[in-house]
Amino acid sequence: MNRFVQLLIGLVLAGAGYLCLNYTSAFQSENHAEWAAEHELPAPTHTIFLAGAAVGGLGALMTGHALGRRRRA
Q1: How many CB atoms within 10 Å of residue 24?
Q2: Do residues 67 and 25 make contact, with C-beta atoms less than 8 angstroms apart?
Q3: Per-residue pLDDT tens listing for the chain (73 residues)
Q4: Phi, psi (degrees; rounded to nearest 5) at 14
Q5: 1-10: which pairs have CB atoms within 8 A and are 24 or more residues apart?
Q6: What is the per-residue pLDDT for 73?
Q7: Cα separation of 27 and 53, whole Å?
Q8: pLDDT of residue 12
Q9: Are 11 and 63 in contact (CB under 8 A)?
Q10: H helix runs in the chain, sequence order
Q11: Region for residue 41 given its phi and psi (left: phi exceeds 0; alpha: psi -120 to 50; beta: otherwise)
């Protein structure tokens, strides 16, 4: 996979994971649940939190790999 494409995909995944974690922020979920109901979105759940953590971690790994690997000669 092209280094630039891998970096771009990694950054997008890391950003999506961050947004999922922010959406489900553990101690303010009452405010997020009200906002979700007003905008007809799913309520913050533990499943969304776990998916955000997994996607964010994968994105961080892809970004780190794209930035840290050696260029081929």
Answers
A1: 22
A2: no
A3: 788 999 999 999 999 999 988 888 765 667 778 888 889 988 888 898 999 999 999 999 999 999 998 777 6
A4: -65, -40
A5: 3/66, 3/69, 3/71, 4/66, 6/62, 6/65, 6/66, 7/62, 7/63, 7/66, 7/67, 9/59, 9/62, 10/58, 10/59, 10/60, 10/61, 10/62, 10/63, 10/64, 10/65, 10/66
A6: 62
A7: 16
A8: 97
A9: yes
A10: 3-23, 29-38, 46-68
A11: beta
Place of tokens 């009452």: 30
CA 36 to centroid of chain Cα atoms: 18
What span, in angstroms and rounded, lies between the C-alpha atoms of 35 and 52?
A: 19
pTM, entire model: 0.81
pLDDT of residue 7: 94
Residue 6, both tokens: 């891998």
Amino acid in the structure at residue 54 = A
What is the C-alpha end-to-end distance of the chain, expressed in Å? 16
